[in-house]
Amino acid sequence: MSFSTSTGNSSTPDLESWHSDPSFRGTWGIIATCLSTLIICVWSAIHVDIAPHHRNRSFFDKVWWLIVGLLAPDWLLLVAFRQLYWAWDLSYNAKKYFLVQEPAGPSLSWLQRLKKRARLGARQVVPSSWSERREEERILLAETGYGAHTGMPSTANTSNVRQNVWTMTHSYYAAMGGLVLDASLTPVFGTEVRLVLSPTILHFLMERVPDIIPDFPIDRIQCWSRSDGLAKLLLVVQLLYFTISCAARLAQNLPLSLLEVWTLAHALGAILVYIAWWRKPLDIAEPTLLAGDRARELAAYFQVVGIPLWPRAAGVDNHYGTPEANYLQITPCRTMDDCAFLYKGQNSVTLYPGQTVQVEGYAFTLGARIPDVINSIIFGGARPPWYARERNPDGSVVLGTGDLVRWQLAARAATRLGGLWQPPNAIIYTQSGGLETFDVVPASGSSFSPALGTIVVPIMTVYALPHFLGWNAAFPTPLERTLWRFASVMIAVLPTVFYVCFVFKLIGRRTKPFAYTIAGMLLRVVLIATGALFWTAIILYILANGYLLVDSLKQLSHLPDDAFLLPDLSVYLPHFT
């Protein structure tokens, strides 16, 4: 058999099969690059808090904050730095109130630390000594919630001297809802059997009950986390690569699409969020449960003296309720003649205004105050406490078993605290914690410093600056160019407007204006005007962000030819020749 080759209508194949990458890109390439950078990086940058016991809730929380990060990245940035502030505050208080035991022997080598971390990650107790066995067992009890019903909970550190140093990772773990109290006897908001230790509660415990906070090493938290510094560093490198490619286009006089400008601003915001949450653990499934009698007593105590909080709109306008203690007058009861009732395990007690019931040596006198609307909204209709329900026509209230048990446990905790029923700083508790609870303007008396805004506002303004790269871009119409410029200016200016509104809002919460004085009336007018300005700014902020996104997508069909050329990154990135 023979083969013949015809060369009349055929061409000789090119032996040089190596071809360089094309020097151009397509419309889909622009869209795919921007969307992948946005979704992957913003999704990875979001570090949601720990749900009390709803493992599936963290995914939906992350989807919600992904939407916030895409449509309002500067607000996500503000929340991240707000939580960073709380972590710094907790670390400062830990250094102030925690005593750390000096290590008896030499520090562990990196190989020994790796072996210890592997052992902790497997949740297996392999103690090398009896003291280490006791420490591991105590931590596991705190972790699973198996505590004996004794005066000292299993999670407590019986000594004020701690074996492990409190780090920023500990502070983040605590601030993100990593520590919860057993509230099974007094459910929070009627349904939640765990009380999340908010930063304000943690501050209170560090100062007055430091031994109840678990003492565990940083390795244990790191092994629970699903990310480490290397993974975060790789994502930051990806964001920086996108930023460098955009800078290379500008340096080589190649125009950027508005979608790239919009993505660049979000990439910059994601990097700043990464910096704020660098030491925050990622996607921890379960919190550490503090069980035992004292933990349950403190859970009831915080529900009596604490301010209930209902988060709304990603923390933009949280609802603060009124503490239960404000509806009562609680004093030591020395004789039975001072009280109308003595609590001995009754199922219910009917109290009239001015009447008193004795519980654990304290006289709880019912006040004549009418329940406010905010408490009714916060607690809803699912087994609300007595002070969130409408009173009877004669002003009386019916105290159920849950109300009386809450008073009993709270009274025991107050006795341990020296009869403290009015904490010097505000204590805030929520149903499930979360990033939304980190209100920029906390309740009166909390440890908030307006100096935080002087740091965060310039950072939020820096995020808005990349939008000005589209100032002279190619727009389909002059009107769209004007609207883009107006929206860019709004995004840059509104953080300062928000900060001014927050400062006035803080002044309003910490000041009781006198309605019948000129100063009081002027303050009320200023607060009303500030509230109107705040919501107007919110509407403008949403419209501006929405327009920037829509216009960046619309401009893809009107890009100039130079926008499809690729820059030469070899000029800026190190490479081998």
TrEMBL record:
<feature type="transmembrane region" description="Helical">
    <location>
        <begin position="257"/>
        <end position="277"/>
    </location>
</feature>
<keyword id="KW-0472">Membrane</keyword>
<feature type="transmembrane region" description="Helical">
    <location>
        <begin position="28"/>
        <end position="51"/>
    </location>
</feature>
<protein>
    <submittedName>
        <fullName>Uncharacterized protein</fullName>
    </submittedName>
</protein>
<feature type="transmembrane region" description="Helical">
    <location>
        <begin position="483"/>
        <end position="507"/>
    </location>
</feature>
<keyword id="KW-0812">Transmembrane</keyword>
<feature type="transmembrane region" description="Helical">
    <location>
        <begin position="230"/>
        <end position="251"/>
    </location>
</feature>
<keyword id="KW-1133">Transmembrane helix</keyword>
<feature type="transmembrane region" description="Helical">
    <location>
        <begin position="451"/>
        <end position="471"/>
    </location>
</feature>
<feature type="transmembrane region" description="Helical">
    <location>
        <begin position="514"/>
        <end position="544"/>
    </location>
</feature>
<feature type="transmembrane region" description="Helical">
    <location>
        <begin position="63"/>
        <end position="88"/>
    </location>
</feature>
